[in-house]
Amino acid sequence: MQSPCISLCTLNENDICVGCYRHIDEITGWHSADDRRRTEILNNCATRKSDLTKSKHTL
């Protein structure tokens, strides 16, 4: 399974990457994660991206 990294590696105040929406712990654990965990991480990213996009539009 391919990493969601898009080489826009900058963390926000909550240690979430503004490029791929992974938490720092998910980034550092990606290479040792099995496919089940990677799928969970990708789902977390999708949720974070959606939540952050919604919150930007409500400001």
From TrEMBL:
The domain of life for this entry's organism is: Bacteria
The protein's matches in Pfam families, at most eight in alphabetical order, are given as: DUF1289 (PF06945)
Which PANTHER family has this protein been placed in? DUF1289 DOMAIN-CONTAINING PROTEIN
Any idea what this protein is called? DUF1289 domain-containing protein
Phylogenetic placement of the source organism: Bacteria, Pseudomonadati, Pseudomonadota, Gammaproteobacteria, Oceanospirillales
